Amino acid sequence: MSSQVDRQWTTRLRRRSFGRLPPEKMLPDTQPSYVASWIYVFGVATISALVVVIATGCVLAIFGPEWWHVSNIGHFVNSLHLWSVEIFFFCMVIHLWGKYFMAAWRGGRAMTWITGMVLFLASVVTALTGYVSQTNFDSQWISTQAKDAVNASGGGAFFNLLNPGQMLMWHIVLLPLVLVALVAAHVIMVRIKGVVPPFEDDSVAATRAADVESTGAPQ
Amino acid sequence: MGPFLLAALVPLNHPDHYFQWHFLEISAANAIVIVLMVVTFIAALLLPFPGRRGRKGNP
């Protein structure tokens, strides 16, 4: 009976998940002292801005283009959506610069860095589909200019910037799902691997590991 | 009243200003955002983080 339970996919998935990311690691009580840095504040601010982007986007989806073009409250929510996107990119780029100069991919953290980079690129595509979904002259201008770049890359066969319905669906369904999944993956990778230590801590740790390897005992 | 006052302070009803240097061209608005990001990044590196001194290390 127990071997049957052991073979169940739910049992195996639970053991594997909790083995790699136990609850005390997922939601830790303490963090290393070097996590007290503004660079991580900008990472969290990026996620906070994304929450506002999604919430205001939901309101825009409820009432539609005529509302956001004509009514005062529609203008206001439309502006909240735009400015939270501006803050989202502003904070993400500062977080990205900081992590680049920290060489945050050190110590087996390549996937944390890669999920962050792909998140940045996917955000650019999401913003582009948002600009061409405004339903105004600005969106017409941007779509006619940007189509040439997409067509030159060969992507125009399935990603047509002159198709407003397709662009709106990418903007409000597919790409938000991708972004939320990437944010979740990025945060989980940070929790599993931990935050990258400063360079001096990293070299001390490497020296200790080399000492242990050569003498069999820590120095 | 509010929107009109703001419009008077920041007149936006005109073509963008552009900076041009050889083949490089950038709008004033985009240049301002990039400068603000660089300034904020430098401030994030230099400004002390609140409560860091009293924090216990737990690496």
Share in β-strands of chain B: 5-15%
What is the structural class of chain A? mainly alpha
Instruction: Give the proportion of residues in helices of chain A.
Output: over 70%
Instruction: Tally the helices of chain A.
Output: 10
Mean of residue pLDDT of chain B? 82
Radius of gyration of chain B: 20 Å
**SSE order of chain B:** HEEH
Secondary structure tally: strands of chain A: 0
- Summing up helix and strand content along with how strands pair, one would put the structural category of chain B as alpha+beta
Round the mean pLDDT of chain A to the nearest integer and report it: 91
- The number of strands of chain B is 2
Terminal CA distance of chain B: 55 Å
**Uncertain spans of chain A:** none
Number of helix segments of chain B? 2
The helix/strand order of chain A is HHHHHHHHHH
Our estimate of the beta-strand percent of chain A is: under 5%
Cross-sheet strand order for the largest sheet of chain B: 1-2
Descriptive report:
Chain A is an all-alpha fold and 219 residues long. Among the domains of chain A are: 36-102; 110-194, no CATH class. Chain A has helices at 2-7, 9-20, 23-26, 38-63, 65-70, 72-101, 110-131, 137-153, 164-193, 199-215. In chain A, helix 4 (38-63) runs antiparallel to helix 6 (72-101) and helix 7 runs antiparallel to helix 9. Chain A is globular, with a radius of gyration of 23 Å. Chain B has helices at residues 2-9, 28-46, and strands at 18-21, 24-27. Chain B contains 2 helices and 2 strands; from the N terminus they run H-E-E-H. In chain B, strands 1-2 form a two-stranded antiparallel sheet. Chains A and B meet through helix 4 and helix 6 of A and helix 2 of B.
Could you outline the blueprint of secondary structure elements for this entry?
The complex is a heterodimer of chains A (219) and B (59).
Chain A: H1 2-7, H2 9-20, H3 23-26, H4 38-63, H5 65-70, H6 72-101, H7 110-131, H8 137-153, H9 164-193, H10 199-215
Helix pairs in contact in A: 4-6, 6-7, 7-9
Chain B: H1 2-9, E1 18-21, E2 24-27, H2 28-46
Antiparallel strand pairs in B: 1-2
